[in-house]
Amino acid sequence: MKKGSIYRFIAFALMFTLCFSQLGLLKTQAAGNPPANEKTLSIGKAAKGTFTEPEQTHWYKINPSKQEVAKFSHYRVKLQSDDEVNITVYSSLENAKNNVAFDRYMGYSYKDEPAQLDFPIAWTGPYYVKVEYYGSEDDMIEEDAEDGSTSPEPQPEEKTEVPYTISYEGASLPPSQMMEEECPAELSTSQKENGKGILKDLRTIRDAVLSKTASGKDLSSLYYKAAPFISSKMIIDKSMREQVYKDLVQLKGLFTDVAKNGASSTYMITSADQKAINDLYSIAYKSVPTALKKDLEKVAAQTKLKDVTDLNVSSVLVRAKLVSANSVSTKAETRYIVKLKDGANAKSFKTKAQSKSASIESINPLKQSAASFDNMFVIQLDDSNGKSFSTSSAQGKMTAKQIQALPETEFIEPVQEYHALSMDSQYPYQWSLNNTGKNDGTQHADIQYESLEKLLNGQKLKDTVIAVADTGVDSSLADLKGVVDTKTGYNYVDRSSNATDDNGHGTHVAGIIAASANNNYSMAGINSHAKILPVKILDASGSGDTEQIAYGIKYAVDHGAKVINLSLGGSYSRVLEYSLKYAYDHNVTVVAASGNDGMEELSYPASSAYAISVGASNRLDIVSDYSNYGKGLDITAPGSDIPSLVPDGNVTYLSGTSMATPHVAAVAGLLLSQNPGLKPKDVEKRLTDTAKDIKFDEKDAPVYDDEESPAEPPAPGYDYVSGWGRLNAYSAVSAQQLQAQVNTFVSTQKTVTGKAQSGSTVKVMNGSKTLGTAKADAKNTFSMNIPAQKADTVLQVIVTNGKASTSIRAVVQKAPAKPAVKAVTNKDEYVTGTSKANFTVNVKNSAKKVIASGKADAKGAFKVKIPKQKENTVLYITATNSQKQESEEVKVTVRDVIAPNAPKVNPVSDADTAIKGTTEANASVVAKVNNKEIGKAKANAKGQYSIAIKKQKAGTAISVTAADAANNTSKATIVKVSDKTPPAAPSVNAVTTKSTAVTGKTEANATVTVTVNKKSIGSAAANSKGQYSVKIKKQKEKTVLSVTAKDKANNTSKATTKTVTK
């Protein structure tokens, strides 16, 4: 093989490692010389050393004392030499032996430029320092001749002494003061238009591709040794910097494709790319001393590669052993996930699916390690031989349509990618825990951590497992030692049990949740009762696909997690929704980031009903501009400029809903430590009920057209931008400790009730106005009277007891709909009508006392039995729901439908001019003869009446009725006019001593009686013509006879006297 071809590929591979990220991620270098004869350094005291020949190594050790850990955040390690000397600081003996170091803790000195490394005191120590010397620069060596011959061998350097001085001192540095090392790529592109994108791609390639194999690590190690020599050249050679930049721009397309697709890149290397690779390698090769040139050539000889022009990157990487063949995984865009219907035959489905489409390469169960989903399969499209089948291609879409049509298929969807949701690093300290108002902040715009810490101090709570499903977690940091469950963690990117972070995002998240507090190291996490379960589902670039995330969620659930933090987002996926429901059904609370696009749309999975969605706020206590918002946002939490740990030990400030989410996850974990039996909906309610309102009413808010305006106004107390408010950890945990609960109350109620720890003081506030106060009793309940409040009024119920204090949002609900009540009469034994289904219906008397209750049926009909009520009785009917919320009252007056009894009528004679009697009080009384009214009157309050009439003939039948106020008419009382008029004195014919009868004329049919000295001597009835004849004995002359007539009514006429004549 031509040496020039080897050089060209080595340049290509080497340039993949020419930049190192600001996050300073962990890099495992090729094995080097292990520590030997190390000397212990003392703080503030310089040590001197001398190299006598190239490729020598000296070792030193730093033992951090308790006092230094408490006093300083960093050790500033300084190496001074006039020659190019390399220095590396390791966090432990094991890392020193294995040559595992962080980019930012590798440096080099050269004339007038000492190496200075700010090493964080983030590990327990001791720390190891390696100082290396590789010789001085060679003369420039020409590249291969045109005929392919090799360059001449470099001449050995002369031995010389290279002295140096090494020292360290303590420093307390805010994150904003942390220094970044320089590297060739950064020096050439930092001010260039395309530089930022190129550097980002190179960092991704380094962390996601080359760090996975021994060959890749060898190249990285070689670069670190060469870096000081390359940098020193570029610093003084502008044309060299310009040439590097030009070549990197040429390779930008290659970098972008490899950064996106990793070892699976299909990018074809062009001749122009080949030339840029040649140039870059030549620059690197000519810049290093003889010892490193030998190393370069040794590595080159081992690759045995031909010309790489017209080859795809993936095949070159595999053949060079820079990536493993297994890592050339299928791309997300060539895979579908299929969910079969319950009971569907998998074998039949596979047969049908493969017969339907020639683009299907394989169908395999969705199963990986300990996580699996029933009836789910992954369909791999055939993208070999240049077919380029993908889910977005016409053939791919046709395949999906065909599979969906199969009777066994429930749904099919393409595998999608999701990304960690973080922003750029910023400057202040942990304002989210304690915002003093400095640095343009707003005082107390934090989660009230200090009050929370005082509350929990000394309490023995159970640890809760919180899964950080992310880029992994670095557990070697002192603040995370003993906090991270490395034995149970899992890596779904590499399919291994090593869930160490190779990006930094996951460690940052874990630090916010659970970094050890009050140990003098680094920072304080929120939850000291959390155990972090690391589940690596995102790769070194912060990306992961549907399968990895779904696996990760199920794995976390199945391995004891009670909370899952998802600081990531993408598009909706039914597969992920399935896994989220799995978590929800197993009482695992999922907390997800809303997204960083500043859009009125939540990222997924934050938009899922099975997750608590979290937006980000800033130190001013307003929602951050980048935070996604909209209907369904549950809560906000501090997310801008949030400090936390990254794997290199520094506390770094990042911004994003990714940083807000772990604040909420941490507090969710605390709630579950207080009560492991809480369900996800309970956790969400506790968090949102106690959140602080940070709604910001913009005076210059946009005016929407009718078509653009929001579909519905937000619920009282809710805001589409900030959700239910900003997280208040102290209030949420206090509420749980106090078991504070406010019963729902409606606008019809004047009493607020609920539960709280016995002895707690409870206060209800409407803004700044106190509506009422109470004390929780021995039964842990409280009740207080307050003025009735309008529906939708937002109140705050403040519960305090000892160190615990919480403010719970309570919204006055609209009273349930009033029941529809049918008329009630004094005959009824039931109150009937309709209300909402299954509501309880109460019937109250005029004193508002319940006299009867019943329940509406499933259709809302009710029938409540009551005692019969008097007419005009006032009843109040209400409907009460299952939450004991009562409707407004329906007032019902009992109708009178019972007629009065037939009136009592005093006897009426033919002499009377009034009909009198008694009836129902106040009734109207009417007298009729032959249905013709002859008089009427109204009874008084005692029921007495008197009807004026004309005199009626004796024997006339008079009908008397009474009608009440409801116009109910009684039955008639018939009274006959009695005869009270005596007959006229009868006419008597002459009576002689010879007469044996007294005759005359009187009222027809009257009985005529003849008396002498009041003694009857005879009587007889007159005929129909009034003629009578009363037989008597003969009477003496001058006897005086008294003759009277009595009618049938026993009315007796006046007497007619008749003297007997001779």
Automatic annotation (TrEMBL):
Pfam families: Big_6, Peptidase_S8. One of its GO terms (biological process) is proteolysis. Residues 142-161 are annotated as: Disordered. InterPro entries: Big_6, Ig-like_fold, Peptidase_S8/S53_dom, Peptidase_S8/S53_dom_sf, Peptidase_S8_His-AS, Peptidase_S8_Ser-AS, Peptidase_S8_subtilisin-like, Peptidase_S8_subtilisin-rel. Residues 462-694 form the Peptidase S8/S53 domain. Residues 1-23 form the signal peptide. It is found in: Secreted. One of its GO terms (cellular component) is extracellular region. The active site is at residues 470, 505, 658. Keywords: Calcium, Hydrolase, Protease, Secreted, Serine protease, Signal. Its cofactor is Ca(2+). It comes from the Bacteria. One of its GO terms (molecular function) is serine-type endopeptidase activity. Residues 742-812, 815-896, 899-979, 983-1060 form the Bacterial Ig domain. Belongs to the peptidase S8 family. This is S8 family serine peptidase. It comes from Priestia aryabhattai (Bacillus aryabhattai). The lineage of its organism: Bacteria, Bacillati, Bacillota, Bacilli, Bacillales.
